[in-house]
Amino acid sequence: MSPLPIPRCLRAWWPPVKPDLAITYQPQVHFFADEGLPLVRVGTLINSPLNTVIALDKQIKTRQICKARRWATRSAALSRPPWRPWRNMRGSIRPASKLVNVNFQLTSALLAGQVDAVIGGYRNIEAQELKLQGKTPVVMNVEDYGVPAYDELVIVAHRDAIHEAKIRKFLTALQAGVGYLRAHPQKSWEAFAAAHPELRTELNHQAWLQTVPLFATDPAALDKARYETYEQFLYNNKLVKKVTPLTNYAVELH
C-alpha cells in the first residue's frame, strides 16, 4: 500500500471498501486528528524521517548561508510539513529562490543542472541514485535543521477497531517479519528480487539495504514524547488549529 492522503484515506473507510489498516505518514496523522477524523496510529513501519535536502555543491551545506537559488520539489511538498517550517528558517531558502515542480524527477533535474538543490528527496532513494551516478551528494536531513524527528511510515486504523484482536496479531506478525528482514537483509532481497525480477536493479538493491535498518523493531511501540513534540511543533508553526491530546490519535497495543 502507498501512504494515503486525506481524501483517499477517508474514502477508504466508506462502503463498499472497509480496510482494516492503512499506511500513511506520522505528520498526516496529526492532520487527521486536527480535522477530527477517526483514524488512530496503531503501529510504525519506518521510525526515522526519510526526507532530506540534497545538493551537489558542497558550499550549499550551511544553515546560515544557503546559496541554492533554484530548488526542485515534487508536487506541493513545500506546503506540507516538514518543509513549510524548514523553508521559513533563517538562511534555509532565499526569498528570491525559485521553486521548480519536477514531480518525481528530482535527481534528473539536479544532474542536468536545472536546479541547485532538491527538497523532499529520500535519503534511501535519491541519495543512493546520485551515488550510483558517480556523484557525492550533500545530504541534509530535516531533523538536523530544526524539524523534530518523526516516524516516516505508520499504520492507522479506525478508532472503533483499534482494540480488535486481529490488529494485535498483525503487529505481532509484522514484528517477526521485521526481525527476519533485519537479520537477513541480503537473503530477503534475493527472495524479493526473485519474485519481482522487473525490480532487480542496483538502485533498488541499494535502497533495500539502506531501508532495512530503518524498520521499527517493535512496530507496536509508541514514542509518546516524539508524537507530542511533533504535535507542538505543528501548532507552533500554525500548521494545526489546536494541540490534540495524544490519546486521540495514537495508541500502543501490547
From TrEMBL:
Q: Which GO terms describe its biological process?
A: thiamine biosynthetic process
Query: Which parts of the sequence belong to the SsuA/THI5-like domain?
Result: 18-187
Recorded hits in PANTHER family, A to Z, give: 4-AMINO-5-HYDROXYMETHYL-2-METHYLPYRIMIDINE PHOSPHATE SYNTHASE THI11-RELATED, THIAMINE BIOSYNTHESIS PROTEIN HI_0357-RELATED
Q: InterPro entries annotated for this entry? A: NMT1/THI5, SsuA/THI5
Residues annotated as coiled-coil are: none
Give a Pfam family name.
NMT1
The UniProt entry, under Gene3D superfamilies, shows: Periplasmic binding protein-like II
Q: Kindly provide the name given to this protein in its UniProt entry.
A: Hydroxymethylpyrimidine ABC transporter substrate-binding protein
